[in-house]
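Model it.
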Amino acid sequence: MQEIIGQVGSLLLGAVPTMVLFIVLVLAYQFLVQGPLGATLKARRARTVGAIEDAQKAIEKAEERAGEYAGKLRQARAEVYKVREQRMKQWTGERDTALEAARKAAGQRVAEARVELEAEAAAARKSIQGAQGELASQVVRAVLPAAAGSSR
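Modeled.
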């Protein structure tokens, strides 16, 4: 058993330089290959996945802005429709006022014309009544001239 322990000890003692070389090789791999490779992979990930994430964030911001713009556009349209409605009401009121004024003026002209016509009719009646006696005598002379001449 001593012999086995001695052989294992000599093997371990012979393996120490190999272990030291292996540890140095692992450390060199860590510093020379693994570190730069990890940094390159991180940069690659930042360029690809990070760029995708940045693009998604930009899309989200753009959608938010588009929503804001759509809201502002709806609000502006509502204001335009409101102003348009007010103007239409104003124009309708002005039109109604102008129509009412025209109706009153036309009614007044009709009333004046009616009064003037009635005055002319009354004057014509007076003229006819004043000339009634003379007309009757002219009719009698026209109808009865022969009768008046035969009795003479």
